[in-house]
Amino acid sequence: MPIMALLPIAAALLVQQPANSSTSLDFEYFKARIQPILMAKRQGNARCISCHTTGTPMRLQPLAPGAATWTDEESRKNFEVIRPRVFAGEPAKSKLLTHPLAETAGGDPIHDGGKHWKSQDDPEWQTLAAWVRGATLNSSKTTSNNLRIIQTNAAGDNVTIIDPATNKVVGEITGIEVGHGAAVAAGKIYISNESQSTLDVADGKTLKVTNKIPLSGHPNNIAAGKDGRRVYVSIAQAPGAVDVIDTATLTRVKSIPVKGSVHNTYVTPDGKFVIAGSVAGKTITAIDAQTEQPVWTMDFDLGIRPMAFEANPDGSTKRIFAQLSNLNGFAVVDFATHKEINRIELPRIAAGKAPVLGGGNESHGMAVTSDQKMLVVNSRLNSAVYMYSLPDLKLMGSVDVGRSPDWVTLTPDGKLAYVANAQSNNVSVIDLKTMKEVTRIPVGQVPKRNITALLP
């Protein structure tokens, strides 16, 4: 049973949800933006209309033979069917959005049509949310316009905000010296502050720092849970831990001990695990996101640097790609067995090109495109970025960038990569289809970690 189905046996879900009188639902937006989602085919899932034009309570109009979409009259009827499943102005209270959303991302526990969105950052979910909040066709560009690249500057006192639509700096968070990692949850921006050993919280609209949360030790990188309720902070100070921050109370609620000081912390694609990598401990530790307890630890011969994650078709984690200390390349780890299955070295530096030896690991920063077809890998040593096809890990090409590329983040559509060049004080923008550098954006002092996020 596909995507937007209400549980057929749950009478409570047949009751119209109360409307919020301050927000109206726009029919033209529904017709142009929401109905295509109802007809869309997703890998591994049946289309909404395959079930919702037949036997479910949320009964859409059947398409006429040969028709690509509904008529205006049919769309009006669909609109009236959908409206009772929406709490206008409140996406998180609307069954239309919560029923097909993964429970780990704030969705309902059960949906007979399966789970179709792993995160509230999914573009389809965001389109639905914009409509519920009152978007019209004239205003619907605001969702894409809120996409930002958040770039920390490791030797500066600011965080740079970049608009990927224009590749221009459009904002700045000030007053954070030696900012390290960044994350966004519930409309707030979180930055790990190395100078004060705090997690600094900035308002997503005003970019003003509103809170400083004391941590258990010196922080490095951070990650937000899929549902936005937690932020996990790497504690790089011995003996090592992952601090857990509750985003509702803005307090540290616990510290999870980890073998070795923690350099980078991630959340797996399905949101089920928090993954901590230690340089000193030479370990990867997997933490159950529900119990917030370590469940397995994997030892290596070299320290663990940045990681990236490949997902299975069902969203679960297939492989970890882990950069290692003193290796211009990365290890490949089978997630299910916790075994290293391959180790790949990046191409040697081109003849006549001077290596960049100082300031960090040979290879630092990597990411997987949203379609799971490409792995993007930085080489600080070569001042270049390499693209590998997935799942076969064949080298597709490379792009020279600024000095010492230290981190990379991708746009949700997988078209652009933003590479932080630590020793050039700029960010390279790479077109991943053409494998060409589009531009370089000046930022602050020694830019390192960056993320892609939607801001309010």
Summarize the structure in short:
This protein is mainly β and 456 residues long.
Keywords:
single chain; 456 residues; mainly beta; Methylamine Dehydrogenase, Chain H; 4-stranded antiparallel sheet; disordered N terminus
Describe the structure.
With 456 residues, this protein is mainly beta. The chain has 2 domains: 11-142, no CATH class; 148-454, YVTN repeat-like/Quinoprotein amine dehydrogenase (Methylamine Dehydrogenase, Chain H), CATH 2.130.10. Helix content is 10%, strand content 39%. It has 6 helices and 28 strands. The protein has helices spanning 27-39, 48-52, 72-82, 95-98, 123-132, 142-145; strands at residues 147-153, 158-163, 168-174, 179-185, 188-193, 198-203, 209-214, 219-224, 230-235, 241-246, 251-257, 262-267, 273-278, 283-288, 293-299, 304-311, 317-324, 329-334, 339-345, 366-368, 374-379, 384-389, 395-400, 405-410, 416-421, 426-431, 436-442, 447-454. Strands 3-2-1-28 form a 4-stranded antiparallel beta sheet. Strands 4-5-6-7 form a 4-stranded antiparallel beta sheet, with no helix packed on it. Strands 8-9-10-11 form a 4-stranded antiparallel beta sheet, with no helix packed on it. A hairpin with a 5-residue loop joins strand 12 and strand 13. Helix 1 crosses helix 3 (72-82) and helix 1 (27-39) runs antiparallel to helix 5 (123-132). The longest helix is centred in the N-terminal third of the chain and has 13 residues, at 27-39. It is globular. The model is unreliable at 1-22 (pLDDT under 50).
